Amino acid sequence: MGIVTPGFGGRRRDDGGKLPPGQYLTRDFPVLSAGPTPRVATERWELAIVTETGRRHSWDWAAFTALPVEDITVDIHCVTRWSKLDTAWSGVSLDTLLAEVDTSAEYVMAHSHGGYTTNMPLPDLLGGRAWIAHRYGGRPLDPEHGGPARLLVPHLYFWKSAKWVRELRLLARDEPGFWEDAGYHSYGDPWREQRYEGD
Ligand SMILES: Nc1nc2c(c(=O)[nH]1)N[C@H]1C(S)=C(S)[C@@H](COP(=O)(O)O)O[C@H]1N2
Ligand SMILES: [Mo]
Questions:
Q1: How many Å apart are CA 55 and CA 77, to the nearest integer?
Q2: How does strand 24-25 pair with strand 82-93?
Q3: Residue 15, domain member (yes or no)
Q4: Which residue has a Cα nearest atom 10 of ligand 1?
Q5: Is the residue at 162 inside a domain?
Q6: Which residues pair with 118 in a beta bridge?
Q7: Among candidate residues 194, 113, 182, the one with its CA nearest the CA of residue 155
Q8: pLDDT (tens digit, 9 = 90+) per residue, 127-178?
Q9: Long-range contacts of range 29-34, CB-CB < 8 Å, 24 or more positions apart?
């Protein structure tokens, strides 16, 4: 390979090494929803974490928004191959929410309004890597993008970031969610290009 001039002979490498294999950059914010957008009023919004023993921890909107809010700037990667760099969110860390939960579960299933589900290992929600995000670009999160609040797990493909999340169920064993059951990868690391089962 010779020298590649930016803008000539293919894709410009202006991503600073931030683009996982097989992805392209977009400046838009595409909407990907496997169904209609549920409208959830904050007055009747509730987030629950249910442990493997059935213990339920829940937060209404007032309790949730009273928790420490973090500003998060992260890159997001959709399995349909678009990536968007430096997206700016605000939300509550899962470290904060899970701090009051006693569990020995190793997996979690996120459940959303509308029936969407997605699974991941519980440790992936810890260590400053996952949030319940309720603001985007300095404004309340649009319903199309998961408002009032969505899961944000940017180190995994974006299908893991459940919009309109209402419950996190802690599980002893891994189970497939909506896309995982349809043949997508159970973990979904964009840097290892884990798109489909078997990748
Ligand atoms: N509840 C729910 N969450 C969801 C989805 C969905 O269809 N329903 N789509 C997933 C997929 S495939 C992607 S790429 C992102 C898209 O989020 P966006 O519409 O805000 O770009 O949401 C994820 N979370
Ligand atoms: Mo996606």
A1: 33
A2: parallel
A3: no
A4: 159
A5: yes
A6: 110
A7: 194
A8: 999 999 999 999 999 999 999 999 999 999 999 999 999 999 999 999 999 9
A9: 29/84, 29/87, 29/145, 30/78, 30/82, 31/144, 31/145, 32/78, 32/80, 32/158, 32/159, 33/144, 33/163, 34/116, 34/178
Q: Is the Cβ atom of 23 under 6 angstroms away from ligand 1?
A: no
Predicted TM-score of the model (pTM) = 0.94
How many structural domains compose the chain? 1
**Closest-lying ligand 1 atom to the alpha carbon of residue 35:** 7
The pLDDT score that the predictor gives to residue 15 is 75
Distance 107 CA to ligand 2 centre (A): 21
CB-ligand 1 contact for 128 (6 Å cutoff): no
How far apart are the two ends of the chain, measured CA to CA in Å? 28
How many Cα atoms occupy the beta-carbon half-sphere of 67 within 13 Å?
24
Domain limits for position 69: 42-174
Segments of the chain with pLDDT less than 70? 1-14
Distance (Å, whole) CA 71 – CA 73: 7
Which of 74, 163, 196 for a ligand 1 pocket mutation test, highest count of atoms within 8 Å of Cβ? 163
| Residue ID of nearest Cα to ligand 1 atom 19 | 31
Indicate which CATH number applies to the domain containing 123.
3.90.420.10
The closest residue, in CA terms, to atom 22 on ligand 1 is: 159
Asked whether residue 10 is domain-assigned, the answer is: no
Does 184 reside within a domain?
Answer: no
